[in-house]
Amino acid sequence: MVKKLFFWIDPTLVFIGIFSVFALLRPTFHVANTHKPESSLEKNTLAVSSDAIQKKQGIDVSHFQGVVDWKAIKNNVDYVYVKATDGITYVDPRYYENSQALTQEKIHSGAYHFYEPDDDPIKQADNFLSTTGSFSHRLRPVLDVEISRGKSANEISAAVLKWLEYVTQKTGCKPIVYSYASFWDEYLGKSFSNYPFWLADYTAIVQPPADRADWQLWQYSQTGRIDGIAIAVDRDIFQGDVKQFNDLFCP
């Protein structure tokens, strides 16, 4: 009796089970096959690529890096800053060679000046402008401000402002200020909040000054390595959208 009951019920259960599974799965297959047409996926991909945060890698170099293989560098960075001048007379020994190569390789580039607190800011600016004038660096000029030489905060900020305003007037392009957080807090501060900021900070997580969370560039390492340079080099990163990256270039 048990055996007979087993064979009579089993086919029905099997039929019902198969029918139920099919009924449940069929709508799922239908939705999957019609979810987001190919053209929609392509459109979404393009939208993300045009508006997404861009983490663009760069380096900054001086004669300390020696001879640079710019052909090798070209495929590994998005932009390069080269040291041009220091004080009122000094020109970096490799500035001209580096700038010529950067132009030839069509690498986005800019030049920076190391600020000397004991020197007249306008004469320093003239040294920078006369040195860089023969090259078409597209990135904004940079003023590296990181030493005080015993000058007060008021003296530093007043002189730095003269350099920045003079270069802006002569070039039509507002410079970027490079410094580190504690120096910014003590000597520069909110008076320079309308200038783009390049932060030097060698910690795992960027720590900008309290009033400058809107940094444009971050020099995150002094000991970086990259194909094309035999020794350590400063590594930099830009983080922002496409429009913000374009704003790093002079009009």
Notes on the protein architecture:
- A hairpin with a 2-residue loop joins strand 8 and strand 9.
- This protein has 251 residues and is α/β, with parallel strands linked by helices.
- The chain starts with a helix and ends in a 5-residue tail after the last helix.
- Helix content is 43%, strand content 23%.
- Helix 5 runs parallel beside helix 6.
- It has an eight-stranded mixed barrel with strand order 1-2-4-5-6-7-8-9.
- It folds into two domains: 34 residues; 192 residues, Alpha-Beta Barrel (TIM Barrel).
Quaternary structure classification: single chain
How much helicity do the residues have? 40-55%
Main sheet attributes: strand count, strand direction, barrel closure: 8 strands, mixed, barrel
Strand composition percent? 15-25%
DSSP E strands, number: 9
Strand order of the largest sheet: 1-2-4-5-6-7-8-9
Order of helices and strands: HHEHEEHEHEHEHEEEH
- Overall structural class, as computed from helix and strand content, comes to alpha/beta
CATH superfamily assignment of the largest domain?
Glycosidases
Q: Ranges with pLDDT <50 over ≥5 residues? A: 1-50
Provide a count of the helices.
8
* Overall number of domains: 2
Terminal residue distance: 95 Å
Tell me the overall shape.
globular
- Please give the radius of gyration in angstroms: 30 Å
CATH architecture verdict of the largest domain:
Alpha-Beta Barrel
CATH class of the largest domain: Alpha Beta
CATH topology of the largest domain, which one? TIM Barrel
- Average pLDDT over all residues: 83
